[in-house]
Write a structure and sequence with these properties.
alpha/beta; Quinone Oxidoreductase, Chain A, domain 1; Rossmann fold; 2 domains; seven-stranded mixed β-sheet; six-stranded parallel β-sheet; 25% strand; globular; binds NADP nicotinamide-adenine-dinucleotide phosphate; oxidoreductase activity, acting on the CH-CH group of donors, NAD or NADP as acceptor; MDR_fam; Enoyl reductase (ER) domain-containing protein; oxidoreductase; ER
């Protein structure tokens, strides 16, 4: 594909903060001039953007680990792109990842880019999934916070999503008995039949909690992506010295009010730990995790799954899929004509 530099770019910016679910007013598409790069800057063509559940938090005006996206600002998003201009550390044609946002082209400082070289049996797009934030979150959450050990029982909520399905696979690789919780029968079937986990429960089925109590009974590590009632239920299922890994709480991301946990006293009686974490706190150990994940991929021990949508203008509707259970595996949107080889 020709690497020509346009004079303008389409982008999607935050137009109005949603009260609950993202709607037609939340974002707006526009065309703006593309800034000419200054010293130390390059133009990048955005090829794919990752859609992450955390993005709902980024448009909420509240104290968090990053400042909220401002009204009128390009929607923040991790992305994979191609460099279109030469600079000191990158040259035309290099594949890079960075926080490019929902845009066709961006002018960015070269120090904000990471040039990538896909390891054997991977594609550049894997840096938005197993070799990116998703894989790193699963790795540090399960190994460092969950401290999973062979033979232990691991329960994963949001199990068929990007993070959850990676945690499930890491759990099996590390010798745990893995139970997944997901919101559809076909997702549960994929987890058991394709990813090889031990059992999966559809949380939309009546009676799934009773079935879990009867069949699995208790757990050692609960890796939670969902929060709310799901977390509250699993607090009643802890073994002694269990670890509850608070990765996310997607059931509350579109809500203004949160109800508290009722069963937290189980943490006392079971001498259990509950701990939240952010992947970025492990930045100094990313290379260790990336090497382990690349090795597992090379050895054929990890399966990657993408849910690929297309179109910059449609990013808002695609983002909403995460909150409707519309994705299995990693949700990404292709923005340019550059196709990943998966
Ligand atoms: N701590 C960190 O540093 C960090 C980093 C990355 C991600 N995370 C967290 O990891 C979690 C997963 O994020 P992701 O980007 O990988 O998304 P994802 O799991 O690929 O997609 C979200 C999934 O959540 C499920 N879901 C949505 N609403 C739900 C509800 N009300 N109750 C139960 N399940 C619901 C849906 O599946 P079903 O069909 O099963 O409902 C959906 O497919 C999020 O909580 C995110 O905030 C944390």
């Amino acid at each position: 594909m020709a690497l020509t530099i346009p004079s303008s770019t389409k982008r999607v910016h935050l137009a109005k903060r949603p009260k609950d679910f993202i709607d037609g007013q939340t974002f707006a598409l526009e065309t703006i001039p593309l800034r000419t790069p200054g010293p130390g800057e390059v133009v990048v063509r955005v090829d794919y953007v990752a859609l992450d559940a955390a993005m709902r938090g980024w448009i909420r005006d509240m104290r968090s680990y990053v400042p909220p996206v401002k009204i009128g600002e390009t929607m923040r998003a991790y992305a994979l792109g191609t460099v279109l201009t030469d600079a000191k550390t990158v040259k035309k044609g290099d594949r890079v990842i960075g926080m490019f946002g929902w845009a066709e082209f961006v002018t960015v400082g070269e120090s904000s880019l990471r040039k990538i070289t896909p390891p054997p049996y991977t594609d550049a797009l894997d840096f938005l999934n197993l070799l990116g934030l998703t894989g790193l979150t699963a790795y540090f959450g399960l190994l460092r916070v969950g401290n999973i050990k062979p033979g232990e029982t691991l329960v994963v909520s949001g199990a068929a999503g990007a993070t959850g399905s990676t945690v499930c696979q890491f759990g099996k690789l590390l010798g745990a008995k893995v139970i997944g919780i997901a919101g559809a029968a076909d997702k549960c079937k994929w987890l058991v039949d394709d990813l090889g986990i031990d059992k999966a429960y559809n949380y939309k089925d009546k009676g799934w909690k009773d079935a879990f109590k009867k069949e699995v009974r208790t757990l050692d590590v609960f890796f939670d992506n969902v929060g709310g009632d799901t977390l509250d239920f699993f607090l009643t299922r802890l073994n002694q010295n269990a670890r509850v890994v608070l990765c996310g709480a997607i059931s509350g991301y579109n809500s203004q009010s949160f109800s508290g946990l009722r069963n937290y006293m189980a943490l006392i009686t079971q001498r259990a730990k509950i701990e939240g974490f952010l992947t970025m706190d492990y930045a100094d150990q990313y290379s260790e995790a990336e090497a382990a994940i690349a090795r597992w991929i090379r050895e054929g021990k990890l399966k990657r799954k993408f849910h690929i949508e297309t179109g910059l203008a449609e990013c808002p509707q695609h983002l909403a899929l995460l909150f409707q259970g519309g994705n299995t595996g990693k949700l990404v949107v292709r923005i340019s004509q550059e196709q990943a080889r998966l």
